[in-house]
Amino acid sequence: MPLATDDFLDIDDVTPAELDALLDRAAAMKAGETDPRLGDATLGMIFEKPSTRTRVSFETGMTRLGGHAMFLGPDDIQLGHGEPLRDTARVLGRYVDGVMARLFDHEDVETLAANADCPVINGLTDEAHPCQTLADLLTIRETIGEDATVAWVGDGNNVGQSFVVGAAMAGIDVEVATPAAYGMNPAVFDRAAEFGADVEPTTDPEAAIDGADVVYTDVWISMGQEDEREEKLAAFEGFQVNQELLAGTDAKVMHCLPAHRGEEITDDVLESDRALVWDQAENRMHAQNALLVELLGGE
């Protein structure tokens, strides 16, 4: 059955039951137990900022599903060059079967969804990265199981915010440690509480990882924040995921990539047996394929 939502802009646009079904479908498709097709469906992919994993996973995924993906960068369409975004959305909605957009402003993806007469998927905005959360939850299910505790250590960014809500929906306990000035939007914890989670953020990474099955981090300086580099590096002192922080634990390590080795995570940790990052990267495609099938009505 298709999802009740027409668009996927935030992880909690789906219900916990729908999220569980999405992950079940992703696992079955990955294992080759089912092979749904999208026929000749076309996915328009709008990129305001570049990406390796988002572009390749969606483009390859659509090909594997029997469809077609079309890359639309800032120089390929009128995005930001005089045409209102709502007009672009209206036109695209008459051409393609679905739109995936990787944008800066979250309000822009909401504008796309409000005006495009087709499903819209958030491939990343400054506030949310729900497709990454799907891959993260699939990875945890495969490697740790659903009875897991995850510590988010570092910047309270879009990846972390989506993950906290998604983990609550999946029944995964989450601890959050961020510098005081770089915490998550408090509304994120309110959304997580709606699914029974009681997340109390801390500024102490060691306290957050105590008893954790997984330690999850991401870059401290995201794309477009390069002018904040020196300020952020000072603020995040002590938050690096390294062997010293992980000493005495059996915790696995997650990172959505790309990683700034030597900043938020050390090279030796990323290359160790603790790292689940390559499974996460692969699972972007499998999780998104399940999402595409559900939203676009594959058979």
UniProtKB/TrEMBL annotation:
Record EC number: 2.1.3.3
Keywords carried by this UniProt record: Cytoplasm, Transferase
Reaction equation(s) it catalyzes: carbamoyl phosphate + L-ornithine = L-citrulline + phosphate + H(+)
Gene Ontology terms: cellular component: cytoplasm
Binding-site list for carbamoyl phosphate: S51, T52, R53, T54, Q78, R102, H129, P130, C131, Q132, C256, L257, R284
GO molecular function: amino acid binding; ornithine carbamoyltransferase activity
Gene3D superfamilies linked: Aspartate/ornithine carbamoyltransferase (3.40.50.1370)
Single GO BP term: L-arginine biosynthetic process via ornithine
One Pfam family, short name: OTCace
Record InterPro entries: Asp/Orn_carbamoyltranf_P-bd, Asp/Orn_carbamoylTrfase, Asp/Orn_carbamoylTrfase_sf, Asp_carbamoyltransf_Asp/Orn-bd, Orn/put_carbamltrans, OTCase_ArgI
Domain spans labelled Aspartate/ornithine carbamoyltransferase carbamoyl-P binding: 7-142
Domain Aspartate/ornithine carbamoyltransferase Asp/Orn-binding: 147-293
Domain of life: Archaea
PANTHER family: ORNITHINE CARBAMOYLTRANSFERASE, MITOCHONDRIAL, ORNITHINE TRANSCARBAMYLASE, MITOCHONDRIAL
HAMAP family named in the record: OTCase
Sequence similarity: Belongs to the aspartate/ornithine carbamoyltransferase superfamily. OTCase family.
Name of the protein described by the UniProt record: Ornithine carbamoyltransferase
Originating organism: Halorubrum saccharovorum
Taxonomic classification: Archaea, Methanobacteriati, Methanobacteriota, Stenosarchaea group, Halobacteria
